[in-house]
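stage 2 :: seqdesign
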């Protein structure tokens, strides 16, 4: 049986659906075609997927499931759904000491794949980038008659970041300190890594002040604060919001995940010299087809156009865990790197044989005898490996390597987002005048793809902060089940995003990468809300819950800042 599904986890889907149907797993083939994004919704196995296989088996004909937008909205997972109560202890000089959280999570009507795990991720990342001596958290899961919640881009980390970054700004206002000063005062220091957090994590590496300083310079922070004073004197509502976020990525060590946290890669060099990479990760818009080809081309010394990356077909690709939690390159790319090292070691054996010397180095795809300067090309070694007329000792013909890599730890990217807003007194509309994003995802392999991930994440973060909301009526009917009712941000709503990066390599994997797929969503919402609250602070506004709809803001302004 062959099943086509736009999933983030093709191999895990095969395992689960085969188990549901009671059929041999190797009799089921799952193919994931080109998928226009997953965002956590496709990190699940839904009832309809197993049902279609059951029906096809029963009637002996192909079956296709086509759902309406409303059906999709009610049958796949929803995101976030927190009600959080924070308390923060600090000294009068701004030193933060302790944090207390009561987290009530809307579970929905039943569990999906990772439903109860998402609020746990929030608690793990409660400290953010700061040095807290004490942290207490209570998680309460509330079953409701709503759609189940589960992993949505960021999966627990946007919730944690929003909470701590709002609390830092509230503390700054309470102590009449600049929000920049209070952040810099409490960051984990550069010389304190690896850093053990109060919630039990080990942050791998960081330079938390670097992206903040870069963002401040980009926005010209001092000039913006002076401009804000002038704007307020003219009766305008201008705000500046800062978010310095940290996230847990590269999911991750198998001990921490229900289905394993390793990843796999196979590299095969054809007799013609073309290279095929088969990754157990399942990219769906992140661009690993490009980054994995870059890594392969760099390591083997071949042209990037000679590399083909294959994924998402369980009958072709060796078993893999999938793509989620910003793990594609940080875990799947590391597996690829180690597979390439094994392949390079075997290629070198053929170079040694052909050159008749042990003093051989692999340079740019060729093997060079360091004693004589003689060399053999990549093509010559590939031919020798496949023709196998003569083989080096203890070496088999062909050039194929498979590696399964288990990461020793998560990775912990970070960054700083700054948002400048202006609020219209008459309509409650929020205009974003500047959006600065400086993200540190470790080593950057492809800057264009990194920026693309940040931009997409920011778009979703803005949607959450300003417009998006699942609304139920008094009879628990979902009234925002169509795009005519659900305020999805359009292209013309988006500000120009000024994105740049700092690089702090991770020691967790050989590539030094950390992950960036969720960064924009995590850093965005607190920066936006902090900015709007800052704009309305002259009216006595201390906090506003998302989404910051024009109606909500207009009512606040009309009430003089008091709801």
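stage 2 :: out
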């Amino acid at each position: 049986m062959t099943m086509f599904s736009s999933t983030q986890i093709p191999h895990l889907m095969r395992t689960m659906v085969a188990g549901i149907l009671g059929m041999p797993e190797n009799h089921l083939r799952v193919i994931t075609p080109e998928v226009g994004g997953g965002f956590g919704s496709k990190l699940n196995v839904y009832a309809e997927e197993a049902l279609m296989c059951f029906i096809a088996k029963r009637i002996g004909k192909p079956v296709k499931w086509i759902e309406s937008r409303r059906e999709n909205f009610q049958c796949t997972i929803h995101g976030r759904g927190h009600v959080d109560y924070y308390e923060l202890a600090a000294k009068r000089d701004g030193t933060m000491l302790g944090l207390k959280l009561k987290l009530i999570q809307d579970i929905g009507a039943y569990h999906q794949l990772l439903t109860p795990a998402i609020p746990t991720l929030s608690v793990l990342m409660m400290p953010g980038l700061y040095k807290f001596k004490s942290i207490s958290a209570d998680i309460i899961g509330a079953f409701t008659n709503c759609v189940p919640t589960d992993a949505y881009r960021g999966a627990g980390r946007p919730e944690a970041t929003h909470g701590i970054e709002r609390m830092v700004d509230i503390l700054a206002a309470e102590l009449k300190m600049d929000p920049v000063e209070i952040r810099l005062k409490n960051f984990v220091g550069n010389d304190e890594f690896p850093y053990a957090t109060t919630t039990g994590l080990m942050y791998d590496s960081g330079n938390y002040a670097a992206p903040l300083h870069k963002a401040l310079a980009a926005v010209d922070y001092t000039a913006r604060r002076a401009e804000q004073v002038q704007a307020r004197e003219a009766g305008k509502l201008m705000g500046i919001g800062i978010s310095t976020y940290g996230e847990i990525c590269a999911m991750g060590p198998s001990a921490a995940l229900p289905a394993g946290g390793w990843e796999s890669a196979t590299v095969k060099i054809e007799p013609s010299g073309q290279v095929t990479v088969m990754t157990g990760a399942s990219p769906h818009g992140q661009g690993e087809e490009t980054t994995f080809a870059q890594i392969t081309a760099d390591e083997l010394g071949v042209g990037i156009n000679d590399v083909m990356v294959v994924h998402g077909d369980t009958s072709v690709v060796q078993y893999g865990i999938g793509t989620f939690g910003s793990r594609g390159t940080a875990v799947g790319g590391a597996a690829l790197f180690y597979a390439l090292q094994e392949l390079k070691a075997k290629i070198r054996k053929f170079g040694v044989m052909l050159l008749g010397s042990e003093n051989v180095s692999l340079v740019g795809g060729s093997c060079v005898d360091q004693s004589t300067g003689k060399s053999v090309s990549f093509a010559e070694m590939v031919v020798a490996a496949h023709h196998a007329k003569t083989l080096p000792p203890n070496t088999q013909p062909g050039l194929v390597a498979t590696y399964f890599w288990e990461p020793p730890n998560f990775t912990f990217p970070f960054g700083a987002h700054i948002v400048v807003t202006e609020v219209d007194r008459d309509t409650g509309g929020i205009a974003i005048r500047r959006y600065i994003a400086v993200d540190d995802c470790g080593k950057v392999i492809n800057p264009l793809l990194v920026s693309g991930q940040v931009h997409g994440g920011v778009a979703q973060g803005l949607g959450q902060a300003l417009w998006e909301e699942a609304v139920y009526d008094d009879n628990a009917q979902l009234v925002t089940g169509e795009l005519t009712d659900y305020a999805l941000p359009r292209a013309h709503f988006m500000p120009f995003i000024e994105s740049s990066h700092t690089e702090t390599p991770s020691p967790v994997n050989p590539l030094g990468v950390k992950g960036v797929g969720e960064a924009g969503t995590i850093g965005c919402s607190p920066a936006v809300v902090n900015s709007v609250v800052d704009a309305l602070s002259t009216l006595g506004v201390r906090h506003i819950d998302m989404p910051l709809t024009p109606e909500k803001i207009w009512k606040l302004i009309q009430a003089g800042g008091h709801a």
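stage 3 :: structure notes
- The chain has a mean pLDDT of 96.
- The radius of gyration is 26 Å.
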